[in-house]
Amino acid sequence: MEMVAPFAKVFSMGDIPTSVIAIILGIGFGFFLEKAGFGSAKTLAGVWYGYDFAVIRVMFTAILVSMLGLFGLHYAGVLNLDLVYINGTYVWPQIVGGFIFGIGFNVGQYCPGTSAVACATGRIDGFVFIFGFLVGVVGFAFVFPWIEPFFNSSNMGRITLPEAFGIPAGVVVLGVVLIALGAFAFTHFLDRKLGNVPAGGEK
Amino acid sequence: MTKNGPAPYWNSYKAGIGLGLVLLAAFVIMGRGLGASGAMTRMASYAVHKTDAMIKGGTAAESKTIALKNKYMARYVGSSADPFDDFLVFLFLGAIVGGLISGASARRISFSVIKGPQSTTKRRLIFAFSGGLISAFGARLARGCTSGQALTGGATLALGSWLFMLACFAGGYAIAYFTRKEWI
Predict the structure, then answer these.
(1) Number of domains within chain B
(2) Which domain holds residue B137?
(3) ∠ CA(B151), CA(A184), CA(A29), 5° rounding?
(4) Interhelix angle A54-75/A41-49, nearest 10 degrees
(5) Which pLDDT score is estimated for B5?
């Protein structure tokens, strides 16, 4: 089969279709986040205190679906994986940044995407989180000159788990599937053990 | 559930499949995934840029705002700004619309503050503000948040994104004990 995807890289696309596509993708993004219960900090907080594991289930299901679709289309010869943007790796900034982000996530119980849907449904705490985030971005910008050396440190470029560990991509994909399924099973075990009624528990 | 009360949330796997398909569509169409913190960074930088230009007055002031002089914000407002940032802003606005559609269809729209049973509105809002502030630092340092790093980078098997994801959970669980009174 002919490699036709990613469309925007294989064919040329103007600015207008790009922004229209962005809005449509965004609507889908916000829609499913809200349906998952992520417009409420209460659902999100459940993952830290063990009363609702929707965060784990939704996040890893989304990763599995998109990862399997991505690699499936790649193996079918439809999508050129080399043209898909892969986040560059900066080992220490991402570990330290991720840790700080996790603290902020726990304190505020939203993240940028979920705060948008919280705000959309009238949650004032979601609105306040966004305001805090915007102030934080500006604060970060002002201290940036001092942390720039760290920000650009341990740059490994475009590197994936298969490349980093020298394991075939298919094996890593299978590994992620098994870990996710194990995580799902573990959250259901905890639900039974703790007698949880998760927000997303409707059968 | 009362007759006119809010509809229940979806089963997590069903919502996760929907979210995964949106992410896959972004990869197939755009060759890039989703992101939310990039849009907020662009909006914040742009707000600083415009406000400063307004305070200084005149169109000439537009070329020397504190946002343009700042090495970090200049990347988001200057002429060298990445066009992908505009894509992220539209994506973010779309997400608000999508949340509104889903919330309205489930009768979940109401002005309220979500908080734990032992918390107060004032405490909850202080925590929400602080959490936003802290996570902004983390997201900017890591070059992305839960959507740009964990979801998108997770699906593409990017090494740094998996490190981000593990560190994020570690950070959250490290502080969860101290913030527990807010939620349980």
Answers:
(1) 1
(2) 111-184
(3) 30
(4) 90
(5) 86
* pLDDT for residue B147: 95
Task: Let me know the angle formed at the C-alpha of B99 by B83 and B117, rounded to the nearest 5 degrees.
Answer: 125
Within-domain flag for B37: no
Q: Is residue B99 part of a domain?
A: no
pLDDT tens per residue across span B134-184: 999 999 999 999 999 999 999 999 999 999 999 999 999 999 999 999 999
Which pLDDT score, from 0 to 100, does residue B3 have?
A: 60
Give contacts of A168 with chain B, Cβ < 8 Å.
none
For B92, what's the count of Cα atoms within 13 Å in the CB-facing half-sphere? 23
Residue A36 has pLDDT above 90, yes or no: yes
Length of chain A: 203
Give, for A69, the enclosing helix (H) or strand (E): helix A54-75
Q: Which residue of A has its CA nearest to B44?
A: A134
**Within 13 Å, how many C-alpha atoms sit on residue A3's CB side?**
16
Cβ–Cβ < 8 Å for B34, A29: yes
Q: Look up the pTM and report it.
A: 0.95
* Residue B35 and residue A25 in contact, taking contact as beta carbons nearer than 8 Å: no
B166 close to A (CB below 8 A): yes
**A25/B41 touch (CB, cutoff 8 Å), yes or no:** no
- In a mutational test of the B interface, the residue from A81, A107, A123 whose CB has the highest number of chain B CBs within 10 Å is A107
A108-138 pLDDT, tens per residue?
Answer: 999 999 999 999 999 999 999 999 999 999 9
- pLDDT at residue A202, as a whole number: 47
CA dihedral angle for residue B170, residue B175, residue B177, residue B183, rounded to 10 degrees: -100
d(CA B101, CA B96): 9
This complex has an ipTM of 0.95
